[in-house]
Amino acid sequence: MDPRAGRHSTGWFDLSAGVAGDMLLAALVDAGGSLERMQAAVDAVIPGTVRLVAHEVVRAGMRALKVDVELLVEDQPHRRWSEIRDRVTGAELDDPVRSLVLAAFGSLAQAEARVHGVGVDDVHFHEVGAWDSIADVVGVCAGVVELDLTDISTSRISLGSGAVRAAHGTMPVPVPAVLELCRGWQVTSGGDGELATPTGLALVTALAARQEPLPALRVHTTGVGAGSKDISGRPNVVRLVVGDTEAVATETGMAAPGDGSLERRDMVVLEANVDDLDPRVWPSVVDDLLAAGAADAWLTPMVMKRGRPAQLLSVLADPQQATQLLDLVFRSTSTIGVRETSVTRWALARGWHAVLLDGHRIGVKVAHREGRIVHATPEFRDVEAAALALSRPVRDVLEAAVAAAAAAHLTPGADVPAALDDHA
Ligand SMILES: O=C([S-])c1cc(C(=O)S)c[n+]([C@@H]2O[C@H](COP(=O)(O)O)[C@@H](O)[C@H]2O)c1
Ligand code: NI
What we know:
This protein is α+β, with helices and mostly antiparallel strands. Helix content is 33%, strand content 31%. It comes from Terrabacter ginsenosidimutans.
């Protein structure tokens, strides 16, 4: 279960200039997180080792907050993952903070294990196991819990380019652990040098549910967290926007999510323009996409360059299913490119009620809002089956089904029946 379950704030991180643990830490403090509380959480895991100090800096002409993690004792950063895990497990931390820290460090350990070809319990961290990196992870998780960021998303992540010197020697950027952590996430090079570090990547991929452009929200507060380097021409910062989507929904006349009438869901639409697929194949493509879990799939006829007739294939899906459906689009059509767009879907609550027509059961889909029916639609496949069984025209049976639904008070504006079924 998500340890941050509940309805609170939405946080969006702008990672277009990269990401590191200390940048996230500073962005959270700048957005209102308490440095003292972060320090207390860090002290619970690694007492007496570091002090968090915040101060304002300028990055490419822009104000930002920098959080320095000052070492109070000498460090020997060669820690095993199991040692860090035991410290976190045994520390006096709030449970949600502990869960997030273990998730972030756990994925860092998995990435290191894969990169170096060792078991996860044999992972030896170098820099990322140092006191300052542990402080970054614990402080960021404490800040996220304190600011109640129950729904986090990020922009595309800039990783950088070139090479970097580390305990492992000179490594190409993105460094191996970063690349491992990027699986399934949208990234771009975005500039020179190491813009995203393993700790930064482990944190955002553990904390964020998805990537998207800045979502529609009412902004409560923002934070700008500085990285160490000041690069001319581009502020080396992570930006955090904190807000709530409920306010936006209410202002646009929509019921707030969770009122039982309207569901707000972040989804994606995959699209491809295809002019060279045998048209007889299309029905099975759409059927296969629906069977594979697409929320909807449809075709729009169009004319492409050089007057070629073509189809626009559109697939609506949960973001988590996008990769799997993308593979299916590539496998089952002739396209060589697919566009992905983030969309918000608003859906009415719905359920099923049955009516009888000359002894034949017809399901009626009832969409409702705030206790009133908005639409009541007889299921067309049931109508076709009844028409076949009764040897009557489909058109007549459809009319009779609509009349039977009305007789059962399934009409727009009527009260929603007490019991609706989940299925047809
Ligand atoms: O500490 C370890 S094991 C480590 C692994 C890797 C690999 O890509 S493998 C890279 N690094 C480099 O360490 C520094 C510090 O990273 P932080 O995440 O603590 O900021 C950075 O340059 C990494 O590329 C360390
Ligand atoms: Ni490594």
